[in-house]
Design goal:
The chain is α+β, with helices and mostly antiparallel strands. Helix content is 43%, strand content 18%. It has seven helices and 13 strands. The strands form five sheets. It has a three-stranded antiparallel sheet, covered by helices on one side. β12 (263-268) and β13 (276-277) form a beta hairpin. The longest helix has 38 residues, at 217-254. It is flat and about 120 Å long. Residues 107-117 and 256-278 have low confidence and may be disordered.
């Protein structure tokens, strides 16, 4: 049986070499659990880089370490790298992500082996497009070359003849029959409407990220205030324009502009005033 790794938001603090705190009831229960099953938190170890805390509340509120990657204590030597990521510009969460690289044995199937194990013959397509006849002909050709044992029959000869039959079947199958590949992550409920909604959500998220800092409420208030001011100016613009027009007309009616060797002066058309140089 392999090792079990637990990860996620446990909503409780776990002490470690680089994270100390005054335990509460919840953290004491968690501590007893990891002691019972001999576990440890990867991101509370000294080899983990980045911030100690993984949860940062908005607007510079309290921060704690409640997200963990728990592994058996006997597997601590398999952790090659661990890091808590900070200041991720595309993160809209108040939790910091944790990265962890673990060295495992070569007992896991490779990508090619995994693909071959999930392939199967699509018999419905084979019947629909008439591939069955091609398969039968190819199989008969491959079996024709396999001679039936004529000498003394023993266990080894039977196994060898059996292997030849299986090989002929597989070869004919690969040459003539269509395959259906199992997709473990395919979502059967997905449709075009969900695709459209997903694309709209992405566009709204990009727009939101471009317009504000999601973790800074002051920035959001500033943007809202500036937009309100812009709306106010837009609404008041016709009144301001009319006022400017009236002022210009009033100035033209009451003031005349005269030229002088000493400069330009404004002189009232009805009364004499001390010239004011412009």
């Amino acid at each position: 049986m392999g090792s079990i790794i637990l990860m996620g938001d446990f909503n409780t603090k776990i002490q470690g070499p680089r994270y100390k705190f005054n335990p509460d009831e919840r953290s004491r229960l968690m501590y007893s659990l990891i002691q019972e099953y001999e576990l440890f938190s990867v991101n509370t170890q000294m080899f983990c880089h980045g911030p100690v805390t993984t949860f940062q509340s908005y607007d510079n509120g309290p921060s704690t370490c409640i997200d963990h990657i728990l592994m058996p204590l006997s597997e601590i030597g398999k952790v090659s790298n661990a890091k808590v990521i900070d200041s991720q510009p595309f993160s809209v969460s108040d939790h910091r992500p944790i990265l962890c690289s673990i060295t495992i044995e070569n007992s896991v199937l490779t990508h090619t082996e995994g693909e071959q194990s999930t392939r199967s013959v699509s018999w419905d397509r084979a019947r629909k497009f008439g591939y069955i006849n091609d398969y039968s002909f190819a199989l008969s050709q491959h079996l024709w070359t396999s001679e039936f044992p004529r000498h003394e029959i023993n266990k080894l000869i039977i196994e060898d003849y059996y292997d030849k039959i299986v090989s002929a079947i597989k070869q004919a199958e690969q040459e003539t029959l269509p395959y259906s590949i199992f997709k473990p992550y395919q979502k059967p409920y997905w449709n075009k409407s969900l695709t459209h909604l997903r694309d709209m959500m992405r566009l709204k998220r990009i727009e939101w990220l471009n317009n504000c800092n999601c973790h800074d409420l002051n920035a959001m208030r500033s943007i809202i205030t500036s937009r309100r001011k812009g709306l106010f100016v837009t609404l008041k613009d016709p009144q301001l324009t009319n006022m400017k027009v009236l002022l210009r007309r009033k100035l033209k009616m009451t003031l005349t502009l005269t030229k002088s060797p000493y400069g330009s002066f404004l002189i009232s058309g009805n009364r004499s005033h001390t010239p004011v140089q412009l």
